[in-house]
Specification:
Belongs to the TonB-dependent receptor family. The chain has a 22-stranded antiparallel barrel. The protein has a domain at 3-206 and 301-335 and 387-424 and 490-613 and 652-694 and 729-928: Beta Barrel (Maltoporin, Chain A). Strand 30 (549-565) and strand 31 (568-579) form a beta hairpin. The protein contains twelve helices and 51 strands. It has 929 residues and is mostly beta strands.
C-alpha cells in the first residue's frame, strides 16, 4: 500500500521494488515514478483488505472515478439492456470515455454501448489495478479521453489457492457469496506455465426499497403556487409530496367523480387533494397516492455469475514465448423497474367490474358516459428484466526479446477475438392492444363478464381484466395481456483485435538511455442479433429492434522517451487512426518530468485524444420505453401537463469522433527528512469538442416549447391530442470542459522506528479529487456545469461532488492486520445555475430556475477489516472480517423529479453517490498451498 507516486507498492514483505512496476501510462518499459502522466495503483493487498463482492465496487471508491454504474443503479435499464452491468467512469466524463484494459489489452464490450462489464475480469488473479488519470489515446487508442483503468493479472502465480467469502446487510437481506479457486503450474523446467481460475458468485436480490429512509415522500416538483410574478420559487424540494393523478386501485381524475378512488370490492374513498400541479401535489392524501408505487424499484438485483479463465504460455526458446488465453463468463441478472403507473385509463359506464363491485359509483354515471383514471396497478406483478450474458474471449500471441544496437529489445504480437451473447428478456410487460381490449369489460350472454370485442368476434381469445380496486386481476387475465412470451432479443457483440508492438533503447543521453516504442493495431467491432417481429412494437416496455452494424479501425503509433539530462525526462507519442465510418484522425501527447533535487519531481503532460462513436451511437435501430414528460401550460401543443409517451432512442451513422485536448501538471514530493512519506498534486484540464451525447426527452420538450428551437419540435410526435413518442438521436455536441485536481499522500512507518518493542508497520494513504468544473455546452440551449451536483434532475453520468476523498489506515503486525477506511464527498447542489429563495424570488427561467432548497449534504462512510494469517494442512491461509458502512449511515434525502413517471418508485436519494444498503458484514477465507 506504500505510495511511490504514481504507483502504490504492495505489502513490503512480498512486493517488488517500485522501479519494477510497469504502469499503463506509457508503452515504454519505465517505472511509474518517472511517468509524466499521473497513475494510481491499487495493490492486491488493498483489494484483499476489503474483500469486495465485485472488484468494481472497490475501484469505484477512488476519488478520480465518477459517473460509474453498478448492477444496482442499472435496475431500470429494461429496454437498453444495461441491467446487471458494473462499469467504470473517470472524471465524470462518462463510462464511454474511460478505456478499460486487461493486461494492457482491450476486452469485448458487454453492451452495445461499448461498456466493459468489470465482472468479467478474474478478480482473484488481479495483482493490481492501475488508473491513469489523463488522456492516453496516443498510447492506447480511442476511448481514453478521461483515462485508462488497467487490470493487471498475476500471470506468474504458482501454487493452488481457494477462497470463500460472503456478505449480508445488517437488515438481514442482500446475502451474497463467492467461491473461487486459482492454480498456477510450471512444467518442463519452467518452460510451460499454466494458469487457471474459476469463480462463482451469487447474490440474493432485494426486490423493493424496504428502508425507513425511503418513506419520507421527499421529491422535487414544480411549485403549484408559482405564477412567475408572486415571488415564489418555481421548484420545491421537500417532504409531504406525492402524485396527484393515481392511486393503487385507481383514481378518477376529472368530472363529477373527480377524487373518487377505488379500494377493495365495494370500497371507495374520496381523495383530499393538496395543491396540485400535474403530476404532483403538496399536502393532501399523499400517503394514499404513493401507496403501491413508492419504493417498488429493486434495491439489490438478483445476480449470479460463473467464470473460467486459463492462460498457457510456453517458452519456445529463452527469448521467445508463445501464449494462449481463454476466458468465459456467464451472468444472469434479474431486477424490477417499478409498479408502473397508468394514466388516462378509460372505464365505460357499462363496465362489468364497475357495476359488479362498485354499483354506487356506476349509479352516478349516465348511460354512454365514461371516466378516465390513473392507477399504479395494484395486484399486477412488477415489470422488470431477466438478462443473461455470455462473454467469450480468446487471445493468442507471441512475445520475446532480441538484441539490436548492443541493447535488449522487447516485442509482442497478439490476436484477440471476443464475443458477448446477450439474451434480453422482459418480465411482467403487457401488450398494449391486449390491455385495451381486456379492460373494456362488459356483461355477456348469461351475465358472464367478457371483453366487448368478444361480442362481435367470439374467437378472439380476449380475457377481461379488472383494473378497478386493489383486489388484483385474475391469473387468466394476466396471462392474456402478457402473452405466451415476453419481449425479448438476442444480440451478439463481436470484437477482433490484431496488434504488434516493439520497444527498446536506442542510444545513451546524458540522463540515460533513449527509448522508443512503435506498433500497429487493427480492430473490428460489430453487432447483430435477432428479434421476433411480434416484439418490435406494441408493448409497454421493450419494443425491441435488431441492432446491426460494424466498423473497422486501422492504427499505427510511435512513442519516444528521452532522458535529456539527469533529472529531466521527455516523453512524446503520436498515433494515426483510420475509421471505416468516419475517416482518419491523429492523436498525440507530449510530457515530461523534471527532478531538480531528490526530494521533488515536477511532471506534466499535454495530449490530443479522441473517442469514436460506439456501436449503439452509430447503429441503434431504436430502443423504446414508456416515460413521461411535462409540457408547460400555455405551450402551443395539442396537450399540456404530465404526458405519457414512448421514448425512442435511435442511432446516428453521421456521427464523427470526439476530439479532446487535455493537459496535466503536478509535482511529487519524497522528502528525505521524512522517510516513507510521499505526496503528489496534479491539476488537469480537459476540453472535448464535438462531444457525443443526447438531448433528453424533457430537454427536447423545453427546447421546443420554452426556448422556441423549432428543430426539436419535429422529434415530438402527437397522434391527435395524444403524445405518441419522442425520438432521441445522439449528436456531436459543441463541447465539454472539465477541470480539477488530485491530491495524494502516503506515509509508511515501521513501528520499530519508534520503539523496538512495537511490532508491525503502520501505513496511511489518502487521496482526494477536487472537481472544479464539468461543463457541457450543447450549442443549442445553455451550458450546464455538473461539478458539485449531488442529485436531482441533473444528476447522472456527468455529475460529481466538488470534493471526493478516501483515506486508508493499515496496520500489519504479522499475523494480524487491521484496515480502516474513511471515504466520502462534500456537500453539493441540485444545479449550479439554480437560484435558492423562498420569497421575493426573481423570475425563473429554463437556465436560472428558482428553488426553495438548493443544498444537498455530503457524506462520510467508514469501513473496517480485521485479518488473521494462519497455517494449516501444509498451507497458509487468511481469515478476514469486514464491515462496510460501519456506523450504518443512512443516505441523505435527495429530491428527485419533477418529470419521469418512475420517480416515486426509485430511491429518495442519489443512489450513485450514497450508500443505500446500510451496514454490510463480510467474511473472507483464503487458503494457499
Amino acid at each position: 500500500m506504500l505510495s511511490a507516486p504514481p504507483a502504490l507498492a504492495q505489502d513490503a514483505a512480498d512486493a517488488p521494488e517500485a522501479s519494477q512496476i510497469i504502469v499503463t501510462g506509457s508503452r515504454i518499459v519505465r517505472d511509474g515514478y518517472s511517468a509524466p502522466t499521473p497513475v494510481t495503483v491499487m495493490s492486491q493487498a488493498d483489494i484483499a483488505a476489503q474483500a469486495p463482492a465485485n472488484i468494481s465496487d472497490f475501484v469505484n471508491q477512488l476519488p478520480s472515478i465518477a459517473g460509474s454504474g453498478t448492477s444496482g443503479t442499472q435496475s431500470g435499464g429494461l429496454s437498453n439492456a444495461v441491467a446487471g452491468i458494473n462499469s467504470i467512469g473517470l472524471r465524470g466524463l462518462g463510462t464511454g470515455r474511460t478505456l478499460v484494459l486487461l493486461d494492457g489489452q482491450r476486452s469485448v464490450a458487454s453492451t452495445v454501448g461499448g461498456v466493459v462489464d468489470i465482472n468479467t475480469i478474474p478478480q482473484d488473479l488481479v495483482e493490481r489495478v492501475e488508473v491513469v488519470t489523463g488522456g492516453a489515446s496516443a498510447a492506447y487508442g480511442s476511448d481514453a479521453v478521461g483515462g485508462v483503468v488497467n487490470f493487471v493479472l498475476n500471470k506468474d502465480y504458482k501454487g493452488f489457492r481457494v477462497g470463500l467469502d460472503q456478505g449480508i446487510s445488517s437488515h438481514g437481506d442482500g446475502r451474497n457469496y463467492k467461491i473461487m479457486a486459482s492454480a498456477g503450474l510450471s512444467l518442463l523446467d519452467d518452460r510451460l506455465h499454466m494458469l487457471f481460475n474459476g469463480e462463482f458468485f451469487h447474490q440474493n436480490g432485494v426486490d423493493t426499497i424496504d428502508r425507513d429512509w425511503n418513506d419520507r415522500g421527499y421529491f422535487m416538483i414544480n411549485n403549484p403556487a408559482y405564477n412567475g410574478t408572486n415571488g415564489q420559487p418555481q421548484r420545491l424540494v421537500g417532504t409531504g409530496v406525492g402524485p396527484s393523478g393515481y392511486t393503487a386501485g385507481g383514481l378518477v381524475g376529472a368530472g363529477p367523480l373527480r377524487g373518487t378512488y377505488f379500494l377493495g370490492a365495494g370500497q371507495t374513498g374520496q381523495l383530499t387533494y393538496g395543491s396540485v400541479l400535474s403530476p404532483w401535489m403538496v399536502g393532501g392524501d399523499t400517503g394514499v397516492t404513493l401507496a403501491g408505487h413508492i419504493g417498488t424499484n429493486s434495491l439489490i438485483p438478483h445476480d449470479e455469475r460463473l467464470s473460467f479463465f486459463n492462460r498457457t504460455a510456453f517458452d519456445l526458446t529463452p527469448d521467445i514465448t508463445i501464449f494462449g488465453q481463454f476466458s468465459y463468463n456467464r451472468s444472469t441478472s434479474r431486477s424490477f423497474y417499478q409498479q408502473t403507473p397508468s394514466t388516462g385509463v378509460t372505464i365505460q359506464a357499462d363496465n362489468a367490474y364497475l357495476r359488479t363491485y362498485y354499483p354506487a359509483v356506476a349509479a352516478r354515471m349516465a348511460a354512454g358516459l365514461s371516466f378516465t383514471m390513473g392507477t399504479s396497478n395494484a395486484g399486477f406483478p412488477v415489470p422488470g428484466s431477466d438478462i443473461k450474458r455470455e462473454v467469450y474471449r480468446f487471445v493468442g500471441g507471441v512475445e520475446g526479446t532480441f538484441g539490436l544496437l548492443e541493447r535488449n529489445w522487447n516485442w509482442n504480437a497478439y490476436y484477440q477475438h471476443g464475443e458477448t451473447k446477450a439474451h434480453e428478456e422482459l418480465t411482467n410487460t403487457w401488450n398494449n392492444a391486449r390491455m385495451a381490449l381486456a379492460q373494456d369489460a362488459v356483461f355477456g350472454p348469461g351475465g358472464s363478464i367478457v371483453c366487448r370485442s368478444t361480442l362481435t368476434n367470439p374467437t378472439n381469445g380476449c380475457v377481461p381484466i379488472n383494473r378497478l380496486g386493489t383486489m388484483g386481476p385474475s391469473a387468466e387475465a394476466l396471462a392474456y395481456i402478457y402473452g405466451a412470451q415476453q419481449p425479448q432479443r438476442d444480440q451478439t457483440i463481436k470484437q477482433d483485435v490484431a496488434a504488434a508492438t516493439i520497444n527498446g533503447e536506442l542510444f545513451d543521453l546524458p540522463g540515460g538511455a533513449a527509448a522508443v516504442a512503435f506498433g500497429a493495431e487493427w480492430r473490428k467491432e460489430q453487432i447483430g442479433g435477432t428479434v421476433d417481429p411480434q416484439f418490435n412494437s406494441g408493448w409497454l416496455y421493450g419494443n425491441y429492434l435488431v441492432n446491426r452494424g460494424k466498423y473497422t479501425v486501422k492504427e499505427g503509433f510511435l512513442e519516444v522517451d528521452l532522458p535529456v539530462i539527469k533529472g529531466l525526462n521527455l516523453n512524446a507519442a503520436g498515433r494515426f487512426t483510420d475509421y471505416s465510418t468516419s475517416g482518419s484522425v491523429q492523436t498525440w501527447k507530449v510530457g515530461g518530468t523534471f527532478q531538480p533535487i531528490p526530494d521533488i519531481r515536477f511532471r506534466g503532460n499535454v495530449s490530443h485524444d479522441i473517442r469514436a462513436p460506439n456501436l449503439q451511437e452509430l447503429f441503434a435501430a431504436g430502443t423504446a420505453r414508456t416515460n413521461t414528460v411535462i409540457i408547460p401550460a400555455g405551450a402551443n401543443a395539442p396537450a399540456t401537463g404530465s404526458l405519457q409517451f414512448v421514448q425512442n432512442q435511435v442511432g446516428n451513422p453521421a456521427l464523427t469522433p470526439e476530439v479532446a485536448d487535455s493537459w496535466t501538471v503536478g509535482t511529487v514530493l519524497t522528502p528525505g527528512f521524512l522517510p516513507g512519506f510521499t505526496a503528489s498534486f496534479d491539476y488537469y484540464s480537459i476540453k472535448i469538442d464535438k462531444a457525443i451525447g443526447n438531448v433528453t426527452a424533457q430537454d427536447t420538450v423545453d427546447l421546443c416549447y420554452s426556448e422556441g428551437v423549432a428543430a426539436y419540435c419535429s422529434n415530438i410526435v402527437f397522434v391527435g391530442n395524444t403524445l405518441s413518442s419522442i425520438v432521441l438521436r445522439p449528436i456531436n455536441f459543441a463541447k465539454q470542459t472539465a477541470k480539477g485536481f488530485d491530491i495524494e499522500a502516503s506515509y509508511r512507518l515501521p513501528l520499530s522506528n519508534i520503539s523496538e518493542n512495537l511490532p508491525g508497520t503502520f501505513t496511511i494513504h489518502g487521496m482526494a479529487t477536487h472537481y472544479i468544473k464539468n461543463v457541457i455546452d450543447n450549442g443549442i440551449s445553455f451550458p450546464i456545469d455538473y461539478a458539485g451536483v449531488n442529485g436531482g434532475s441533473l444528476a447522472g453520468t456527468y455529475s460529481s461532488p466538488n470534493w471526493v476523498y478516501r483515506i486508508s489506515a493499515f496496520y500489519d503486525a504479522d499475523p494480524v492486520t487491521f484496515n480502516l477506511v474513511a471515504r466520502g464527498f462534500s456537500d453539493g447542489v441540485y444545479g449550479n445555475d439554480y437560484i435558492q429563495c423562498t420569497t421575493n424570488c426573481p423570475a425563473s427561467t429554463t437556465q436560472y430556475r428558482t428553488i426553495n432548497d438548493n443544498h444537498i449534504d455530503g457524506a462520510t462512510y467508514v469501513d473496517a477489516s480485521l485479518g488473521f494469517k494462519f497455517k494449516a494442512h501444509g498451507g497458509k491461509g487468511t481469515l478476514t472480517f469486514i464491515v462496510n458502512n460501519l456506523f450504518d449511515k443512512a443516505p441523505v434525502p435527495v429530491g428527485n423529479g419533477p418529470d419521469a413517471n418512475n420517480v416515486p418508485a426509485y430511491a429518495q436519494t442519489s443512489r450513485s453517490l450514497y450508500d443505500v444498503i446500510g451496514r454490510v458484514y463480510r467474511v473472507s477465507v483464503k487458503m494457499q498451498f
